[in-house]
């Protein structure tokens, strides 16, 4: 029988262009969260490298590169599921990339791979963001089973497209992973509202892990990584700075809520 509860963690950090340092810091936080009992750990978007688009080649690596190799080692050594937030997955010569999220099982296997579908081409807070200058969009949904959760994958800007998460829920997701690097202006206004809305409307747990602080490029990351239950309650949060938050996810209560308020089965439009 599936477990009644699963303990999950979201990790918050500030990445730069020093991949080795980022991997080391992420590993420390993953280990600390497991010491606190986490069975599933979610890292932020581009946790292993953050830099300007023209230097994407410097941060892009293959799926067999050092960052995902490290994530697989943590999963095996600690006996947990690790959602390796996202990394820049090299395409061809590495000048272009996918923004790729990988769910790793406790035996080190990749059990779900998701390439970010919606790319961040916007102007906010005086900064112009052109993710598509260096990143190719993905085209497919991805889900994986993790410690009793059916985890649907997304990355950052995908959060603004509710049809993606609804499709994941319709495909059986009981939890939604949102590794992110939300900007400070949009984060202050929209981050928690959007996360709680996705949790409520899809009756899913939401595991949202963000970067925090100020990047060397001058762009600010909102942070406020959080775990939300299907009723929309924030169970745990990392408000400022690097760290992690853990929460117990009551899967039995989720089943009761979905039975009492059967929104997903009441859908009539595609």
Give descriptors for this structure.
single chain, 270 residues, globular, six-stranded mixed β-sheet, 28% helix, alpha/beta
Task: Characterize the structure shown.
α1 runs parallel beside α3. The radius of gyration is 17 Å and the shape is globular. It contains seven helices and 18 strands. Strands 1, 2, 3, 4, 5, 6, 9 and 18 form an eight-stranded mixed beta sheet that branches. A six-stranded mixed beta sheet has the order 10-11-12-13-16-17, with helices on one face. A two-stranded antiparallel sheet has the order 7-8. The protein has one domain: Carbon-nitrogen hydrolase (Nitrilase/N-carbamoyl-D-aminoacid amidohydrolase). The protein starts with a strand and ends with a helix. β14 and β15 form a beta hairpin. Helix content is 28%, strand content 33%. It has 270 residues and is α/β, with parallel strands linked by helices. The model has no long low-confidence stretch (mean pLDDT 96).
- How many helices? The count is 7
Structural class, from helix and strand content? alpha/beta
CATH class: Alpha Beta
What is the number of beta strands?
18
Ranges where pLDDT stays below 50 over 5 or more residues in a row are none
What's this entry about, in short?
Helix content is 28%, strand content 33%.
Topology readout:
Layout: E1 5-12, H1 19-35, E2 40-42, H2 56-59, H3 66-78, E3 81-83, E4 87-91, E5 96-104, E6 110-115, E7 121-124, E8 127-130, E9 135-136, E10 143-146, E11 149-153, H4 162-170, E12 175-180, H5 184-202, E13 205-210, E14 212-214, E15 220-222, E16 225-228, E17 234-238, E18 243-250, H6 251-260, H7 263-266
Parallel strand pairs: 1-2, 2-3, 5-9, 11-12, 12-13
Antiparallel strand pairs: 1-18, 3-5, 4-5, 5-6, 7-8, 10-11, 13-16, 14-15, 16-17
Helix pairs in contact: 1-3
